[in-house]
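Hey L., structure's done. Input below.
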Amino acid sequence: MNPMELGDAAALDAMATALEAEGVASAKEGAEQAHKDFQDFEKNNGAGFPYQPAVASALKNFLGMGSFKISQGRGQHWLLEEKEAEQMGIAIAQCVDAYMPDTNSPFTNMVMVCGMAIGPRLALDMMHSKRGQQAQGGAGESNQ
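Output:
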């Protein structure tokens, strides 16, 4: 088919050039967006949504301690595996980041880091205290 039969060859050339430029711009935009997505993915610690690693780590520890305590009374099936606690901690931290963004501050980070260090020690103190009370109660009953 002869392009002259379709109309003005210059207009067709201009349309082809415009479409080509638009395609290049679209491809460039797509590449830039893919690069931005990859940077966000790396910035988000390899997760699809942003989160604070300190918050996720603290939650993982608290979930692990909580599941340990629950498993003592309810059975070993309640004990979370470390990977499960980690995944749950990240998921909760992502929700905190998305729905409570004001909590991401140096103060919150300090509370979380200190909580990670002090929380397990407090839990151990409470467990030791409870065992001591049970031992005293049991010893007192056997003496009577």
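The chain has two domains: 16-46, 47-137. The mean pLDDT is 77.

-- N.
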